[in-house]
């Protein structure tokens, strides 16, 4: 069994994690934490790019951002459902990596895939802790594991964050990982059809959001997250410092 990691970040498509929380993931890695990214699909139904191109871009982003590993469950872009089969696939991943923290899309989003992914991942985090749900890896039964924290990142739809991470020291560097997805974002020379995220304004909006969240906590850049439970505080001064 591999050593447990600190953070497992799920995205419905390659680039979801980079759009939403890559500066936080980069900050964690600079603190010595191991981070793994799991994409549920290859984004093959996107307006721009091919399956092959998006696969290459995902690997390039992982290289820039230094993930310990990036995997893809290939559940089918626009086609994956909240099914027992898909739940077990995600549970198997959670039990393999045994993360402390799981990152997922927030439940209310613009893209239906993101909303389905949010429910799938949240349910998998809970069911992964049930001993009577059996999963195997290399013919061996996996041990149950329930992540300590499930955090929802904000992608397209605005929500008031439960907390904001100061990413002033990693936001600019995280953009290199984001821009590895060259087929998806603004390129005035591109001959492919325009999409929602290929507009120049989309990248500007990502930076504006980071600046806004940063302003709320008195720093240059911030990334906001939703925590659906009551936040435990063991050491008061470590939180309110």
TrEMBL record:
**One GO BP:** bacillithiol biosynthetic process
| Pfam families hit by this protein | PIG-L
Q: Which SUPFAM superfamilies match?
A: LmbE-like
Q: Which domain of life is it from?
A: Bacteria
The Swiss-Prot or TrEMBL record annotates one GO molecular function as: hydrolase activity, acting on carbon-nitrogen (but not peptide) bonds, in linear amides
| Gene3D superfamilies from the UniProt entry | LmbE-like (3.40.50.10320)
Q: What is this protein called?
A: Bacillithiol biosynthesis deacetylase BshB1
Q: Which source organism?
A: Candidatus Thermochlorobacter aerophilus
Q: What is the lineage of its organism?
A: Bacteria, Pseudomonadati, Chlorobiota, Chlorobiia, Chlorobiales
